[in-house]
Amino acid sequence: MHGALAQANIPGGGDTGPDVTLTDHGSTVVLDNGVITATLVKTNARVASILYQGFQMVATDRQVYFSMDGGSSYEQPSNCVYSIKTQTPDMIDISLKHFYTTQPHKFDIDIHYVLRRGNTGLYVYAILDHPASYGATSVGEWRMVWWMPHDSTNFLMERIYVDALRNWEMPSVYDLSQAQPTSIAEIIRLTTGVRANQYDCKYEYSVAYSAIGTYGHASNVNNVGAWLVFGSQEFFNDGPTKQDLAPASGIIHVHFGRNHYNGSGIGVAAGESWSKIFGPYLLYLNSDPQGADALWADAQAQVAAQAGAWPYPWLTDNPLYPLAGDRGAVSGRLAVTDALKPDLTGAGAWVGVAQPDLGSNWQFDAKHYQYWVRADADGSFTIPNVRPGSYTLYAFVNGAVGEYSQTDVSVAAGDTTALGDVVWNVFHPGNSIAWEIGIPDRDSTEFRHGSDYFEPFLYQQFSSEFSGPLEYTVGVSDWSTDWNYAQTSSIEPGTSWKWRVHFNLDSAPAGDATLTVALAGSDHARMYVYVNDETRAVANFYPENGGGNALIREGSHAKYSLSYVTIPAAALNVGANTITLVQGSTGHVMYDYLNLELP
Of 378, 404, 425, which residue is a domain's last? Predict the structure, then answer.
């Protein structure tokens, strides 16, 4: 068969070929469309085998499976009830449904596998259902895991692909077996192979799913690839900035609850009727004699194909999955007005609608669906395929601190809610900006280590890179090299790691100034701010939205927070000044952006 590149614009990778067949073997069921053959285990909803191009695409010892949480709360679907939802020559959709009895989580879990004519992949969707008769329950980690095929020495697909920074030949099965443990259980030190003397950890491949739409593995040896491809991300939690585990050496994850990096989790009360569909998404397989990079490009093209076909017209008769005619849209134009940055526009802004519970926000909402798009160059946006209901509209854009929100945006089936110009007057506590460090983008990658933040144990280098306090001089220093992506409490035993910002003021401010502190993430942090006197802090505070341990988990952000610190006019000098920042607790902060605004 010729490579899948020729089919990249067809959802699923193709639409012609033999009829789709189902063969029931008692404990397993086999779906076959002449392109792939998938063997599914009835009792536990696992994928035991996928045959494609003469290759086994699943590690048959560990398979493809679903699970929830860990430790004493770890659970996989069990005692599933098998049924056929749809069976035609064009498509088969089977259900493997786990019913709650005495398991740790009071959910029914319905796993569906769909094989369609000509497709080079298997669609998957899962439904969590909590009837009103069930007691209170919650879940944090809710995921699917796909173990990659291998022999005793090598993986079938030797390369891993996440994004432009992280795509390389990964350690082989042999390399992983020879690796040394470290002080952190998830991190090993490789001693052989192409990545010898480097660390390997599943967290170094974490990514915001919305930034890529696909990830996986491919081979220059066998010329095949295995990918997760998302046509929509409406069912994921915590919005478009949220990241989690994706692929890693020999594995592909999808975390529906994206519980790492301070994910929100799902909590359901006793007596509450709640359900949600996760997916469908595609376990996509491709082949091309041009090799792994071509396969990655094809997987990326498949993202566009899936998005264009969403919502899939073939998933019918499911009230949790309204088809296109039963959904609505929201349109408008984001007009950003920033008195201190007049060139700022809504171009490329994230604009979305969400339904967080009262008192929460979109960064911490896992129970509902969220719909996000990028605005066009003129700020125009259309958010398609939204379930009917009442939403809050949110928007944020690179260059602006904070976000816009508008409540009571109503969406009706078959209609577009036209908002016209959505005017965001960006708040500033002052009338001028004395200086700024970074770019407001909810990430720390514009700073030092922005291109290698994912390397395990990177923080062990800080003490050799910064001997003593970090000294940053406005107008002289370069934040891409002189401002680190993360500040820990100390890099020398017994001392606080002081970060000093040196700057000049031509005249005394007419009143109190304001230090804007936008954080891309924080964990166990307490910030102290000093102005020209390091013996007495003008402010100390615990950042909001802290948690997630992004530094140890090789991330560049966790959850965004914004603080405004009042700088008394009497504390500032005409001429030279120094603001000192200390992270005084056991954790860390990751800066997004700082500025000093004058009255």
Answer: 425
